[in-house]
Every structure is written in structure tokens, then in C-alpha cells.
Write a structure and sequence with these properties.
Elements: E1 2-9, H1 14-26, E2 31-32, E3 39-48, H2 53-64, E4 70-80, E5 88-94, H3 97-112, E6 125-129, H4 136-144, E7 149-155, E8 157-163, E9 173-179, E10 192-194
Antiparallel strand pairs: 1-3, 1-8, 2-6, 4-5, 4-7, 5-6, 7-10, 8-9
Helix pairs in contact: 2-3
Length: about 200
């Protein structure tokens, strides 16, 4: 069994590094997500039997073949379940209609593979996890950056990642990569481009 999810890798933007530093200064007890693990989850698949993975990969590849590369903003800090009692601190997205359409396309492929659908897609990049009641500085920082634009991202590939719960903090293993169609733009090569 493999614990799988589809996601978009997020580049190491200086603006995100600065805000994670500000979070750390506001509360040193936060468990910051390593920048090498930054990603935006599209579909969480959970535990998938090894014999189902090849068919899943084929269906995901078919679902992305005609999808064009997309651009969206990383914008605004937030928290789950709420700012006053956060468990996860995140950066949200804006201008993300293409992102939502891609997620739905992948969702249909996942369901065609006989796997359960993810519910309630809320596009976000997890920056930190909270295992305590944070001080007021965190809520203040989240409120201050509720609309802040951290960067504009162009994505040219979707990844199928495998995570291992027994190796927390380790980079995710890439099981497959699905290139998106790239329009004629010489600067858009690679998995992503920060603008």
C-alpha cells in the first residue's frame, strides 16, 4: 500500500521564506513545513494498493494531456480550522480558476480508478502546524497578511507523490509526473516559474 496524493510543487519564494521567519519569530513552538516539501495538494488519495497504481497513473496522464499550463497567485495567510485556534497555518491562492478546473479533472480520473473523491477542495500551501495554543502574535500576523500577495506561480507539471508517515519531515517521493501543455513561451520550461 502507498499513501498517495496529486500536487503541484511550490518554488522556494523569498516572500514565503520571509513570512515563515515571521511566523517562527511570533511563536518558536510552531512546526514549520520544510521548503523542500512545499506543495499544493490537489487530490488526497490515501492508501492505494500497489496493483492499482499503474491504472491510476494512466488515468491521471490522460486527464492532464490536454490541460494547458496554468498561472495563479499565492495570496493571503489563513488557518484551519480558524485563526483563533489554528492547527494548520497556510498561504491561500487567488486567480485560481484553472487550478480548480485541473483539480476537478484529476478528481474524475481518481474516481474512474475506483478511488474515493476528495471533498471540499481548498487550495492552500501549508507553512506550519500548531500543536499548542499559540500566542496572540500568530493571529495578529495572519490578520495582517490576510490579503498579501506572495507571488505569481506558473505550473507546467502535476506530480503524483507518495508520503511515508514513518518518515516525517522527509521529502515526498515522486511516483509520476504529468506535464501540462505549454503554449509557445520560451520562459515557461520546467515544473514551475515564479513571476
Amino acid at each position: 500500500m502507498s499513501r498517495l496524493f496529486t500536487a503541484l510543487p511550490i518554488p522556494l519564494l523569498a516572500s514565503l521564506r520571509r513570512v515563515t521567519l515571521a511566523l517562527r519569530q511570533a511563536d518558536s513552538r510552531l512546526r514549520l513545513e520544510s521548503p523542500e516539501r512545499w506543495h499544493l495538494t490537489l487530490n488526497f488519495l490515501g492508501e492505494v494498493a500497489a496493483e492499482r497504481v499503474p491504472d491510476l497513473i494512466r488515468l491521471l496522464r490522460e486527464a492532464t494531456q490536454e490541460v494547458e499550463s496554468l498561472t495563479f497567485n499565492l495570496q493571503g495567510l489563513g488557518a484551519f480550522p480558524e485563526i483563533r485556534r489554528p492547527r494548520v497555518l497556510w498561504v491561500g491562492t487567488g486567480g485560481d480558476d484553472g487550478l480548480r478546473a485541473l483539480q476537478q479533472s484529476l478528481q474524475r480520473a481518481v474516481q474512474s480508478a475506483g478511488l474515493p473523491a476528495s471533498e471540499g477542495f481548498v487550495p492552500h500551501l501549508t507553512l506550519a502546524r500548531v500543536r499548542h495554543l499559540p500566542n496572540g502574535g500568530i493571529a495578529e500576523l495572519l490578520t495582517h497578511h490576510a490579503e498579501t500577495l506572495f507571488g505569481n506561480i506558473r505550473i507546467n507539471e502535476v506530480f503524483l507523490y507518495e508520503s511515508n508517515l514513518h518518515e516525517p519531515g522527509q521529502p515526498y517521493r515522486v511516483r509520476a509526473r504529468f506535464p501540462l501543455r505549454i503554449e509557445a513561451d520560451p520562459g515557461s520550461r520546467g515544473a514551475f516559474r515564479a513571476e
